[in-house]
Model the fold of this input.
Amino acid sequence: MDRTGVTTETPKSPWGSVTPAAPACSLADVMSEQLARQLEEENNTFPTLTEPGSDLLLSDETSDTTSDLMLAQMLQMQFDREFDDQLRREEKKFNGDSKVSISFENYRMVHPYEDSDSSEDEVDWQDTRHDPYRAEKPQTTPRKGFTGKGKNITTKHDEVMCGRKNTARMDNFAPEVHVGDGLGMDLKLSNQVFNSLKQHCYSEQRRSSRLHEKKEHSTAEQAVDPRTRLLMYKMVNAGVLEHINGCISTGKESVVFHADGGSLEEQPVPDEVVLKVFKTTLNEFKNRDRYIKDDYRFIDRFSKLNPRKIIRLWAEKEMHNLTRMKKAEIPCPEVVLLKKHILVMSFIGKDHVPAPKLKDAKLGSEDMKNAYYQVLHMMQQLFQECNLVHADLSEYNMLWHEGKVWLIDVSQSVEPTHPHGLEFLFRDCRNVSTFFQKRGVSEAMSVYDLFNAVTGLNIPVGAEEEAEFVAEIVALEKRNEDHVQRRGKKTFPLSSEDGGPPLKPDADD
Done:
């Protein structure tokens, strides 16, 4: 109401009702209320902690917080746990979905008294800082060679001092030599014992180095050394091979892998091929030198090569033998490529399944009889047309595929002019005759008749004494060797018109 007595209304605010102002209070009251609110919030926050180790920090019943050392250990433990949690998150982020993961466990901040399942009496770790027999500072002998005076004099040759020094020197041994810690023990090693241990460690290091080098430069069973693996990868990169599928056969001298063929500029590559990798370990070839060192085709090169390169000579020798057999149309693998000690050949089989060996083939009586005549014909071709002796012919080196017998593994094959060529042939005849006779082939000839049928020498059998028969063979080889030495030639053509040795017994005088 104004002075005139007229009542007037207060205009409404467009922003709504006005909040009444707070009652005025002193600055001391405001400060005390804020402090009380802050303290109340802090008190409500501490009990709701869910972080690991919070019970250790806040529990007054289980921990004695009056000790500064205990508080420091608890705080350090909490800090380390937070660090480990962060480390696990970094590890998870770093690895992601990768199949190969990297662990950061070695960087964890784990205390020896944390998460220990051992009892109080057993401690899984040892603090070597308090070893009573460990010298705090390196003890050096003065120039004069002794310490002390009078009766207390100690020279550098003192038994106790030398023994403790030798014990301390064991820490310098190689990491793979476990010498123990000797904590709490006054160990004293004499010079003789220490020198023996040192020499033993040195010998073990050299031996382990030799074994490692041998493993890196050798081809073991179903595995290849890095150099051989690199050669195989180069074949794939060059397009000669599409894929290397795996090992299909292992032997004393080689490992055979199956692969899918690629292409070559000079010749087509079959769809399926095999890689015959000759083992680069020399142990398997030490007893087989006679197959190659007396072969007149390789005798000059054999004497000039180091032992490891001789293995490449074996691969080359098999390649030449297979080439001769292929020209004579003898069923055998076809050579595709030779690269050092790796020989690539056509695959005898179908759809990654190798043809069975003759000893494993399930053949009827007619098929077995047919196989025998095939083997007889191939032996005659091998000797008369290819001028070769298989030297390891048996049911293990013959395959049965598509109704035919295939010959494999001819790296040891030699010419008949070899000093032991006819002896090898006689052994082949014995293996073939024995196998087919055991399989019930009545037409199978005896070893003597088979030898004469292959060679055409017609050595008299007589009483069929093997010793006499072998003696005739050795005498014939001796005469052939003398003929070779007189002529001074090391290789001989196939035809007898070119001056080859007369492989026939002398006429009876």
